Amino acid sequence: MMNFTAEQKIRYKLTGNPYQDPDFQHEGPNVIRWLTGGPNPTVKVQFQQEGDLTILYCPWCSEKLGQLDMSSKNVYQDIAEIRITGSKHQRQHQNN
């Protein structure tokens, strides 16, 4: 391992093989995303596609927090509403 480049050492630590690319899950229904930024509260969600809609679920209990139509001109307003209601919903998980 002494003759490996820094990149190869990192690959080795992550995968056990200095030449293999790591496989990070960054898409799919099991990925937890944070909706954050601005004055609204942060909320953690999971996405699921249903036709033209993106459904946002609570990652702890799978309750539907809202839905987004990405072709809509008001997506930012929908996200703001989901962040407010989702934050209220997720406080119950913090109190348990």
Overall domain count: 1
End-to-end separation in angstroms reads 47 Å
| H/E series | HEEEEH
Task: Count every helix, treating DSSP H or I runs of 4 or more residues as helices.
Answer: 2
Strand content: 15-25%
Rough shape? elongated
Indicate the percent of residues in helices.
25-40%
Please state the CA-atom Rg, rounded to the nearest Å.
19 Å
Q: How do the strands line up in the largest sheet?
A: 1-2-3-4
Specify the structural class: alpha+beta
Overall average residue pLDDT: 90
Total number of beta strands? 4
Can you summarize the main beta sheet? 4 strands, antiparallel
Low-pLDDT windows of residues: none
Description:
The chain has one domain. The protein is α+β, with helices and mostly antiparallel strands and 96 residues long. The protein is built from 2 helices and 4 strands; from the N terminus they run αββββα. 32% of the residues lie in helices and 23% in strands. It starts with 5 loop residues before the first helix and ends with a helix.
Quickly describe the structure.
The protein is 32% helix and 23% strand. By secondary structure, the chain is an alpha+beta fold.
What is the topological layout?
Layout: H1 6-15, E1 33-35, E2 43-50, E3 53-57, E4 64-69, H2 75-95
Antiparallel strand pairs: 1-2, 2-3, 3-4
Question: What keywords describe this structure?
Answer:
alpha+beta, single chain
